[in-house]
Amino acid sequence: MLPIRDTIPARNPPIMVWLLILANGVVFMFELMMPAPALERFFYLFGIVPARYTHPDWALWVGFPLDDYWPFLTSMFLHGGWMHVIGNMWTLWIFGDNVEDRMGPVRFLLFYLLCGLAAGFVHWLTGPNSTIPTVGASGAIAG
Fold it and tell me: What angle (nearest 5°) sits at the alpha carbon of residue 69, between those of residues 63 and 74?
């Protein structure tokens, strides 16, 4: 059985969780409107491709902008399909409200983003030669 809620009530409405789910949903709807070649290019530009930082000559050759570290942030809002986005947003919905309630919305957002950045950095460290884009909010959600 899949959980639809937890049994720990939150004292305050999880505004930041709602906003993060909305932001991820809007970006995913944008992805759905893109043709496959454009979506692939979008993932390569805004997802984390470790080799673009490890091998700048290769990155230039395939057309990546140099010194562009935004993908460590933007990759958190991209998802590879319906199950990917639903699974991530469901997990955020179930667990995020209690974490936000404990931390407050601003600290929760900072924690979420820092965890996502750390996950991207660890991914780069553990697979520095990968040419495959990494997308998703799993690292930010898992904390």
Answer: 95
